[in-house]
RNA helicase
Amino acid sequence: MKRKLNENDQPTPVAAAVETENPASTTTQADFAFPDFGLDSKLLQSVAHQKWGKPTLVQSRAIPLIMDGSDVLAKAKTGSGKTAAYLLPILHAILKRKQTVTKPSTAALILCPTRELVDQVSKNIATLTAFCTKEVQTVKLADKQSDTVQRTLLSASPDIVVATPARAWQNIKSNSMSIENLDHLVLDEADLVLSYGYDEDLRSVAAALPKGVQTVLMSATLTTEIDTLKGLFCRNPTVLDLEEADADGEGISQYVVKCAEDEKFLLMYVVFKLKLITGKCIIFVSDVDRSYRLKLFFEQFGIRSCVLNSELPVNSRIHCVEQFNSNVYDILIASDENEVLGDEDTQGVGPSNNHDSEPTSKEQAPPQKKRKASRRDKEYGISRGIDFVRVACVVNFDLPTSSKSYTHRIGRTGRAGQTGMAISFVIPSDKFRKHMPTSVETAENDEKILARITKQQAKKGKEIKDYSFDMKQVEAFRYRMNDALRAVTKVAVREARTREIRSELLKSEKLKRHFEENPAELQHVRHDGELRSARTNPELRHVPDYLLPKEGKKAITPNDVGYVPFKKVRDGKQRKGRSFKGKGRKMGGRKTDPLKSFKARSKR
């Protein structure tokens, strides 16, 4: 609903609004239930269908304020239910308005920093409107659609438009989207919007908004960017700085491994080949080349993984995340090019991976980096906003360049009350550039970044422990690691990268409609297929017994890290025996030799 304007064209203050509200001291969640909010019965049906229990802290505080018409700025941790906190009251207002207003018009505009998050929010809207699909129309402007297609989608004046700021302003500017009757504006992951270079688009959208629009800003952190957006869109917003205390035994266990540059690959091989970590895992690397190098390295040992980066088509990225959440893949290698940088990075800590940010001088933006950035999708982001389901472990294969980015990366695990584990590789300064084929520039400042990360986590009461490997036991695997790395050359990485992009483009565009009609054939477009380096070593796929220590896998990691896997590991004793008939197998309780049982008659 719109707020009433006074004689100065300013929104009238809401009695329930408070300048700041910090319930950090009240760790217990308010005893609310979803029916207590007075939501539409169709929305309550969807909530019940999703089997949601009591609302989370951010939902119990934000929903009543948004329903009263207040501007809200809410800060809550990832996985706390921020999306539903603003969708439910907005959908309720739209359904209520439909009872009196018959003329269609766009009532809500939701802006997200990345295309992946746009798609995710659109799916959440579809879930919450499952019992009122015909009454609420939604359009997402994230796919690479032509201007004509976008104009056609917006011509029906959908109730909700979900888009990135650039797409939204493009359609507002061309008069394809009308916001004259807009009631609600939402900025999801608001602290990232300016980091992704949308400041001009946001200022243009703010200037075009009608008066009296209710604004909701959702974020995981309160930064200077939030203050800028608050002054741009909000007037006297209610600030919710929410801190939920983790329950006993819950949260993220954080570990660090200090090793040489090539030992990263060695330990990753040992961890996944011997299954020291079970469950789904996201591995963060610094750039696109690094992701393909690691994938090709895994292929030498028969370890399947899929790659997620900004060069892949948006349809392929979204499909890859969906299949990862559906347990099709266990290992996801994500390149964090659009890294979330903190205030400490302005002090010259080291090179940054954020190729899409504006350079401060000509010397800081060489022509080669500009060409690389032009091929990448600036609306790509994986370390924030995306709702990954039941991720057991996050591995910082390449340490991020800021403590803020570290926080967002490890937030992909331990969500919604689950436990998780984060392992970070750190290169000591005396081992930097000692193995050039596996070296990366950002590793030069790993120790400085680790000190800042440790300090930041200590303020939250979190401890980063050492994940100690017994390198003597792992040393037997080193020659196999060297054989695999020699096969993963720069030429192999470049060819694999080109081949993967061509393949994904084909899957994304030409086969999209076909596989929507034939879902059973989706197995033919798996994203973890082999890329095939120039030279393969089939013998590396198997681990001989002589490489393992006498004590078994536990000898490699002698310290118990206290990690409980998501998947239940079954041994062979619990499986039912099967009888096979064939050569050399048991037949009728005895072994048969196909040569001795062979009968033939001689010719006379």
In short: Residues 251-343+378-555 form a domain with the Rossmann fold fold (CATH 3.40.50.300).
